Amino acid sequence: MSNSFLQCVSNICGLEMATLVKDYKFSVFGGRIAVVEGHKGIVEYNTERVSFALKTGVLRVCGEDLRIKGLEKNFAVVEGIVRCVEVENEK
Questions:
Q1: Which among 4, 10, 14, 29 is most buried, taking Cβ atoms within 10 Å?
Q2: How confident is the model over 6-29, as pLDDT tens digits?
């Protein structure tokens, strides 16, 4: 697929192109906010770890005092002290 096609699809869907290419995307802002795009649901949720199902694995946000501040289909915002984000791909 060409980049122009993917860019067109990402514009129509309102998604970042990276989400279309990898099926998910995450960003961490200031060690206090983690944004996850492309998840398939919550697998685990406590104050030290929030795990999301991906199409082919699991994405974990690890830290302290974590809480989900926003949750929509395929999109989540986790707030707290974000220490790391881990991605475990199942093959």
A1: 10
A2: 667 667 766 665 555 567 889 999
